[in-house]
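can u do me a favor
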């Protein structure tokens, strides 16, 4: 075993550990902000794995698209709509955790079986080199044009959804049913700084600024 292959295996183990630990942190941490930052670390770890496979263009696209766009969009959405709320107790939470844990464990065992029973072709194909970017561009705008455009539309929909969720429009009554909404959600009314004294007295409010003669 040469020094280069040893370093490559060590890099792979480190990057794989970063991806696995970061993915577990994304799922298990109660703080959603920490989960979003760990998700960015997972994306960076995947980009490092692409570099080990001599896929530099895919690694750069991974960083630009997922770390620079998707993860930043998630962080902006969290910062805009993150509010501390007292969540009600979920009925059957233990059973749900056991079922979800069983499903995840089954998928993990299936992946391990596929990894150890598949006859991988070693060594793999020779790297294309500088022509990789040209071939990827040809495939993106020919064979994979529709999925590429659908991914763009999906990112646009996610951005619009984040903007809609971040809006703070609160009405005194429900626009559909007409029922009064929770008054705790409505911001406190504030008397305007400049107000007509006669109109304020008629409305029962005290003027904040007196008019000068």
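np, heres the sequence
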């Amino acid at each position: 075993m040469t020094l280069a292959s040893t370093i490559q295996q060590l890099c792979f183990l480190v990057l794989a550990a970063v991806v696995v630990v970061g993915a577990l942190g994304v799922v298990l941490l109660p703080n959603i902000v920490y989960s979003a930052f760990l998700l960015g670390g997972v994306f960076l770890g995947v980009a490092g794995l692409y570099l080990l496979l001599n896929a530099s263009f895919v690694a750069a696209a991974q960083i630009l698209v997922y770390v620079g766009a998707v993860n930043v969009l998630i962080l902006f959405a969290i910062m805009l709509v993150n509010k501390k709320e007292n969540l009600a107790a979920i009925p059957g939470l233990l059973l749900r955790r056991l079922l979800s844990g069983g499903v995840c464990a089954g998928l993990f065992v299936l992946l391990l079986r596929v990894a150890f029973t598949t006859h991988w072709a070693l060594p793999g194909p020779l790297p294309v080199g500088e022509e990789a970017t040209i071939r990827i561009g040809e495939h993106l705008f020919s064979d994979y044009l529709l999925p590429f455009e659908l991914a763009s539309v999906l990112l646009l929909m996610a951005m619009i959804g984040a903007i809609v969720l971040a809006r703070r429009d609160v009405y005194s009554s429900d626009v559909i049913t007409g029922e009064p909404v929770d008054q705790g959600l409505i911001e406190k009314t504030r008397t305007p700084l400049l107000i007509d004294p006669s109109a304020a007295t008629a409305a029962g409010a005290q003027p904040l600024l007196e008019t000068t003669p």
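Residues 104 and 110 are 10 Å apart (CA to CA). hope that helps!!
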